[in-house]
């Protein structure tokens, strides 16, 4: 379905980003992975994606908080692959605290990585997409791009901003063969979430099962985690011809959370 296409997926050395990159590779696209982590593990992941799917996979260690590094990542992808057809802005970090106790440095970092990086990456890929009259930009927002939760001021502000950026990008590129949509997941089963369960159980004095149902999935009516495979399948669909008229949307994948 995506044979001959080239995709950059930020924050893709694990979790949702890796799930999306795997789905793209499975559909035939060459992929550029990005993120932090152990160098040997990242190389093993890159090599595995390439060999299992028979595609070209490269890696960029670009720091998503630095605009020059982001534009450099796009330039490197164009040098290595010839073009960038698909951009997935997925990189993100989190910090939880009341507003009056929220560290200013954490606010700045979350806004830079969760929101500004999407702007800088989009700006860098658009000229080539416009020239070729084809492009797909997918912003991984969150249910928190549509609704709020206490103690997550920076994250909620950033993700609401991502949804707004998605709409503006869609409007500006509507006649250029480019679409831009946001995926808004609720809780997704990732190593990061898995790690939180015993920590939350200890903090709340609950069993791990109670933490899952009463804390993590309290707002998700279906009481199950979404999967990275589901995120990947939706991302592939948004790049397909069947989604050519879908642009400027914010698509909840949250088990009914935002239907409240």
Please describe what this structure looks like.
By secondary structure, the protein is of the alpha/beta class. Helices cover 49% and strands 13% of the residues. The protein folds into two domains: 216 residues, 3-Layer(aba) Sandwich (Rossmann fold), CATH 3.40.50; 37 residues, no CATH class. The chain is built from eight helices and seven strands. The protein has a seven-stranded parallel sheet, sandwiched between helices.
Give the strand order of the largest sheet, numbering strands 1, 2, ... along the chain.
3-2-1-4-5-6-7
User: What number of domains?
Assistant: 2
- CATH class type of the largest domain: Alpha Beta
Give me the number of helical elements: 8
Average pLDDT rating: 97
Within the CATH hierarchy, at the fold level, what is the topology of the largest domain? Answer: Rossmann fold
**Main beta-sheet annotation:** 7 strands, parallel
The helix content, as a percent range, equals 40-55%
Key structural traits:
7 strands; Rossmann fold; 260 residues; alpha/beta
Describe, in short, the structure shown:
With 260 residues, the protein is of the alpha/beta class. Helices cover 49% and strands 13% of the residues. The mean pLDDT is 97.
List the helices and strands and how they pair.
Blueprint: E1 6-9, H1 15-26, E2 30-34, H2 39-53, E3 57-60, H3 67-81, E4 86-89, H4 104-132, E5 135-140, H5 153-173, E6 178-185, H6 191-204, H7 208-216, H8 228-239, E7 250-253
Helix pairs in contact: 1-2, 1-8, 3-4, 4-5, 6-7
